[in-house]
Write a structure and sequence with these properties.
Elements: H1 3-33, H2 37-40, H3 42-61, H4 67-87, H5 91-118, H6 125-154, H7 156-177, H8 189-193, H9 199-219, H10 222-230, H11 237-259, H12 263-284, H13 288-316, H14 321-348, H15 355-391
Helix pairs in contact: 1-3, 1-5, 1-6, 1-7, 3-5, 3-14, 4-5, 4-7, 5-6, 5-14, 6-7, 6-11, 6-13, 9-12, 9-13, 9-14, 9-15, 11-13, 12-13, 12-15, 13-14, 14-15
Length: 406
């Protein structure tokens, strides 16, 4: 494994910790600022929307810079945002800190995915991407539960202060280990935007929004769900988050392994199983052991889709992958924002703390339908190209479906 992948994984660890740890300390933050749980959920939604906005904007702004320099700038922004969150005297400033930190998230994973893929042989690209994302999954095994425990014992401000320190470590890792070479291939931003003429890129991002959004519908409100419905103590939530993180870790490795050889079949299986598991979670959430098992499965199935969808986007936008890759990371977080908001809506409507699981199942099921559509269009495009090659008249080729304007 190239050491640069380790540096990317360290950065991913810090980002993953700050993204997910808020779920574990959401009741404490809400209590300190005197806001309701659904209102505190805006700390999840705001972060996610910041990723959606920050991913394409910062990627475009950094189009002329080397990828290493951009990764270092992004980690610096991450440190500033988490420091602001740790010191915020009001809920508004806490939310501002979350948004500032989130601006770095999408571009870091987007640019990092391209760097990771460039470090290895073509047949190992998805595996390299999954190794970078391993930092995100390990954060859910170690960083998030640890941060939750610290937040419950010493206060959530200490948690975010330590996350800022993690960002400094990530910054130093990138500075030390990521090679200097690696400017974006595109000479101008217009070339990068050309990738979005491919309808498959848009389909992939829609699958990302809906599929991963399904996971976040359940996970955003996991603390009240497990304490109020399953009957766990607040302290036990830490260990439940460990199980979720272990599931994410295993799912990420599995997705990375299959993405290089059976991408679409694995995506079909993952999304179908995820939707079914979220549906079942509405019942198993009432039983301690079954709730823990189901939560682990949701982590595994949800994160199995990450290297699959990221690899699909890189393949479809191979001529100019940086912006499309970053935009897809933004799509993951648009799904997070949508699911966190919808989850808050159904809870506020009085449907109970398990209601977000129904929302998640619907989102993931819709993503599965889009995956079938993407596979159909891909087969049709390949068939058209084969006919052209067989005829020996490339100049008469019809415009491929995948290149249609969206």
């Amino acid at each position: 494994m190239p050491l640069a992948l380790l540096a990317l994984a360290i950065g991913a660890f810090g980002i993953g910790t700050t993204e997910f740890v808020i779920m574990g300390v959401l009741p404490q933050v809400a209590g300190d600022f005197g806001v309701s749980i659904p209102t505190a959920g805006w700390l999840v939604t705001g972060y996610a929307l910041g990723v959606v906005v920050g991913a394409p904007i910062l990627t475009v702004l950094g189009a002329k810079a080397s990828r290493k320099k951009m990764l270092m700038i992004l980690m610096g922004l991450f440190v500033v945002g988490n420091t602001l969150s740790a010191l915020a005297p009001t809920f508004g400033l806490m939310l501002t800190g979350r948004v500032v930190a989130s601006l770095a998230h999408g571009a870091f994973f987007g640019i990092g995915s391209v760097v990771a893929a460039d470090l290895v042989a073509p047949q190992k690209k998805a595996s390299a991407i999954s190794l970078m994302f391993m930092g995100l999954t390990v954060a859910n095994i170690v960083g998030v539960p640890g941060g939750t425990s610290i937040g419950q014992a010493l206060g959530w401000r200490v948690t975010f202060g330590l996350v800022a320190v993690l960002g400094v470590v990530g910054l130093l890792g990138v500075a030390k280990l990521v090679p200097e070479h690696g400017r974006p291939e595109a000479a101008n931003v217009r070339t990068e935007f050309a990738a979005f003429k491919n309808v498959q890129v848009w389909l992939a991002m829609a699958m990302t929004v809906l599929g991963y959004g399904g996971v976040f519908a359940a996970i955003t409100y996991i603390t009240p769900m497990m304490t109020e419905v399953a009957g766990y103590t607040e302290g036990a939530v830490t260990w439940l988050l460990v199980l979720f993180g272990i599931g994410m870790f295993l799912g990420n490795l599995l997705g990375g392994k299959f993405a290089d050889r059976a991408l679409m079949p694995m995506l079909f299986v993952s999304l179908a199983a995820l939707s079914a598991t979220l549906l079942v979670f509405t019942a198993t959430a009432h039983h301690k052991v079954l709730a823990a098992i189901t939560l682990t499965l949701i982590g595994a199935l949800g994160f199995a889709t990450v290297p699959l969808l990221q690899k699909w986007v890189l393949d479809q936008a191979s001529a100019a992958p940086t912006l499309a890759s970053a935009a897809n990371i933004g799509a993951f977080n648009l799904g997070n924002a949508l699911a966190a908001w919808l989850g808050g809506v159904v809870i506020a409507a009085g449907l109970g703390f398990t209601a977000p699981n129904w929302v998640g199942a619907l989102l993931s099921g819709t993503a599965l339908l889009l995956a079938f559509l993407a596979a159909y269009l891909d087969r049709r495009t390949r068939a058209a190209r084969s006919r052209v090659v067989a005829a020996g008249t490339p100049e008469a080729a019809p415009a491929p479906v995948a290149a249609a304007h969206h």
